[in-house]
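User: Sequence in, structure out. Go.
Assistant: Echoing your sequence, followed by the structure tokens.
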Amino acid sequence: MSAGTGQPVMYGDAMRWLLLHADCLEMLPELPEGSVQAVITDPPYGIGFGGEAWDGGELTNAEAFQRWTSEWAAGALRTLKPGGWLAAFGTPRTFHRLVAGVEDAGFEVRDQLLWLYAQGVPKSHLRSDGLAGCLKPAYEPVLLARKPLIRSLDTNLAEYGTGAIDIDATRVPRAGSDRGYWPANIAASHDPACRHGSCTSACPVGLMDAVRPISRLFYEPKATRQEREAGCEDLPLSEVPIYPRGGDAVRLVRNAHPTVKPLELMRWLTRLLCPPGGTVLDPFAGSGSTGAAGMLEGRQFVGIERDERYVPIARARIKHWATEAKT
């Protein structure tokens, strides 16, 4: 909330997108009840990620993390229309608490999407004796949950336009077919070093393709630096560490958010969960990837971001992609 007024600082174009600089626990109860069709978000994971305050402190206590999850999820549930969907990214270590918290808030747990990727580094040091405290991450689970329907799916769709996922809008292209494959609950990202027709040895797409053709799955690379910083050209450069486990090496970037999701993945989730012309809510807007995806997919967007470092980044990126969507 802005100092002295109790009101959030708001940005947007009034017609298509709105970004609120506020704490979602305070802001969600102020949003109109039953006003959005989908919630797509990447909340803190409660693992003390990168020493960031927003992911540390009390949230690293498992029970506290679940209670906090239930609190924000209850606010999100209230804003959704009956049958509205929630997609929430998580991490393997605390995902069970995320699921339990969302379920405690009143959602129906429907599925789990696995997003596979090649990048990532272990979150612990390799000791001189060859031992370490964890594996290298290679996937993120995404919870798919739904606000309970009113009576039946047909009734819910007729009254609110929500409750079902859009299979046809998210089919995986298939050679010789106009319809393509049904979307699966696995999505994979190519390694950035992959080239057309040739994958690196660590690429999950290439590894799975060696066993069974992966054309049935949706896949898209992680966000490139060009994608991360599109629209941020006028923002100041910031130093971020190259190696999150320590060391003095840094790089200069304009989008310093550490967990930027690829736009194509967020666009795919938007098409899957939010009906055309609907509104997507992201209570943890971060650098604005959900909002940018919403603009590109012709949806409206409401985002909430507490950290003042990321609000200008999210604002610049959403504005950029909203303009691109018009052209």
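User: And one key feature?
Assistant: The mean pLDDT is 87.
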